[in-house]
Amino acid sequence: MKKRPIGKTILYVILIVYAVITLVPFLWALSSSFKSLGEIVSGSINFIPKNFTIDNYKEIFTREPLFGRWLFNSLFIAVVGTFLNLIFNSMAGYALARLSFPGKKSIFIIILAVLMIPFQVTLIPNFLILKAFGWLNTYQGMIIPGAVNATFIFMMRQFFINFPKEVEEAAAIDGLGKFGTFFRIVLPLAKPALAAQTIFVFMAFWNDFMRPLIILSDESMFTLPLGLNSFKGQFISYWNYIMAASMVFTLPILILYAFFNRYFVKGIKFTGEK
Amino acid sequence: MVKSSSSKKLRREAGQGYLFMAPVLIILGIFVIAPILCAIYLSFHKVELLGGTHLEFRGLDNFMKITFDDRAHIALKNTFIYVVIVVPLQTLLALVLAASLNAGMKGQKFFRIVYFLPTLTSSAVLTLIFMWMYNQNGLINHILDMLHLPTYNWIGDPSVALLAIMIMNIWATAPFFMVIYLAALQDIPDSHYEAAELDGATGLQKFWHITVPNLRPVTSFVVIMGLIGTFQLFDQSYIFSGGSGGPNNSTLTVVLLIYQYAFKSLGTMGYATALAFMLAIIILIATLLQRKFSKEESLY
Q1: Over the stretch A246-259, which tens digit does the pLDDT of each residue have?
Q2: Cβ contacts of residue A101 below 8 Å, gap of 6+?
Q3: Its family (chain B) (predicted)?
Q4: Which of A74, A92, A267, B136 is the most exposed place for a label (fewest CB within 10 A)?
């Protein structure tokens, strides 16, 4: 295939310029997190710190004793929440794809309808319900309402519809019940679909700002986004600390992405094909 | 006998079906279906949370109040401006990036990983990084100054604060939609392009006459997702303005206003619910309009 070299050059310019535009904020934040307060205040724009220091990373944990706790809260809520989503969404997707029971069609339509409702409509009643349960400022208040997700129930249903029936039939002949077949045979074979779900659900819990803002008022229960916001209020001109805290917060997602990179693209593709 | 054993089997399968569905049915029931019904009820009431929850029936008052509430008008105006500017720009940027990446360039993988970074990073972190760059003495003003362009008080000046959020969010969201476009681009058969090349089409002609029409369904999806996302702008406005929607209400969005009425002032929770319904209806109408337009276009 012959290509005009000028066209290619223009495309490379576009790609490289945009890569720089994307990277600069992150590099700037990373560099600021290794600078001293003096250098931050001076307003210089050097990307290589003059006096390289890792003190900011130590300081955020000592100056804000709750920082470690916020990190734990965020991890705990995201990990347990993701785990429950994987099991519950898959179970429902499997039932909708493979089992027959009265009302199946209407349940499926309700799940599709739920996809359309903006989250703000249910937000206020959800607050009142959690308050009535005594679940404000608790882990279960953050985890349980988000433990299922209509998008991924739908995705798992599509996945199981295309799943070879023979595998389950063989398991049934070996005397496994429906639950045994599902948990021991079917679920382990659904790994690609589960991996795509893992990264999206984890990110949604990990990055969520509005729900914790409403449910959590006790500082020790804060998740990182809330903690970061209150940290910013406390140390308003200490941008070196704020950037160090931001970097700590971004790291786990980057690690997760490094592991699940392949499935990430698949997951987005699925959202696009819906 | 055969019949009774098969009906027994059916009943057992139905029981298992409900068991498999149980967690989803319970959670959706309590935290989605019940809240929707509850929201309808609340929107017709004045809600007092002092002590217990007190409700007072007010008919359509909450919905009428929207028409003469100045802050609601400002929030609506800000949100509309934000949607109208951000959705087309982020869609166009996503398309240009995807098409450039898809043109058989070297280093595609590298660019894709770089472009993903904003999608992976939380809105709270991105907003803080940008607030640091938007600082009066910060990186962006320094760059503008070097290029002999005017500098701004990005966070404190009401005339540019919303613009600052727009720039940030176009930057943050376009790469996500780029990935969706990229997947769709890879599904366009090469034979289309080869036929056009035989006819002597240039790169740009191929883009307009083959790529763009083939991407119409995906574009429709990207625009709808963009509309839904932009109408719900909250995190960035909240962090940018410390929850106030300032300076001078310039970053006040509908969702931020809902939050303020529901949780930051007394006795206006019912009104906040009415505002949430209004937003849901606006989003629904915008989505339907988009669908209608994209269908009419595809007739030609």
Answers
A1: 999 888 888 888 77
A2: A95, B13, B14, B15, B16, B17, B18, B21
A3: Belongs to the binding-protein-dependent transport system permease family.
A4: B136
B23-63 pLDDT, tens digit each: 999 999 999 999 999 999 999 998 887 777 788 888 888 99
Neighbouring residues of B44: CB distance < 8 A, sequence distance ≥ 6: B57, B58, B59, B60, B62, B270
Nearest to B183 among A23, A26, A269 (CB): A269
Q: Which of B129, B137, B194 is most worth mutating to test chain A (most A CB atoms within 10 A of its CB)?
A: B129
pLDDT-derived band of residue B4, with 50, 70 and 90 as boundaries? low
Q: Give the pLDDT of residue A63.
A: 86
Looking at the DSSP assignment, which residues form a beta bridge with residue B57?
B45
Q: Give the separation between CA B250 and CA B46, rounded to whole angstroms.
A: 28
For B75, the token pair is 């929030």
- Residue A273 in tokens: 């094909």
Nearest to A14 among B28, B96, B131 (CB): B96
CA B146 to chain centre: 34
- pLDDT < 50 regions, chain A: 1-2, 272-274
Question: Which of B89, B120, B234 should be substituted to probe chain A, the one whose Cβ sees the most A Cβ atoms within 10 Å?
Answer: B120
Domains of chain A and any CATH numbers: 64-234 (1.10.3720.10)
Block residue for tokens 């795509």: A196
Structure tokens at A244: 């160090």
Domains observed in chain B: 2-61 (no CATH), 63-299 (1.10.3720.10)
Nearest CA distance, A267 vs chain B (angstrom): 10
Q: Contact, A173 vs A110, CB < 8 A?
A: no
Q: Annotate A155-181 with DSSP letters as a single string.
A: HHHHHHHTS-HHHHHHHHHTT--HHHI
ipTM of predicted complex: 0.88
**Phi first, then psi: what are they for A48, rounded to 5°?**
-90, 120
Q: How far apart are CA B179 and CA B210, in angstroms?
A: 19
Q: Which residues contact A150 (CB under 8 A, 6 or more apart)?
A: A111, A112, A114, A115, B28
- Beta carbons of A184 and A209 less than 8 angstroms apart: no
Shortest distance between the Cα of A220 and any Cα of chain B, in A, equals: 19
Whether A100 and B13 have beta carbons less than 8 Å apart is answered as yes
- Could you tell me the two tokens for B150? 């005017």
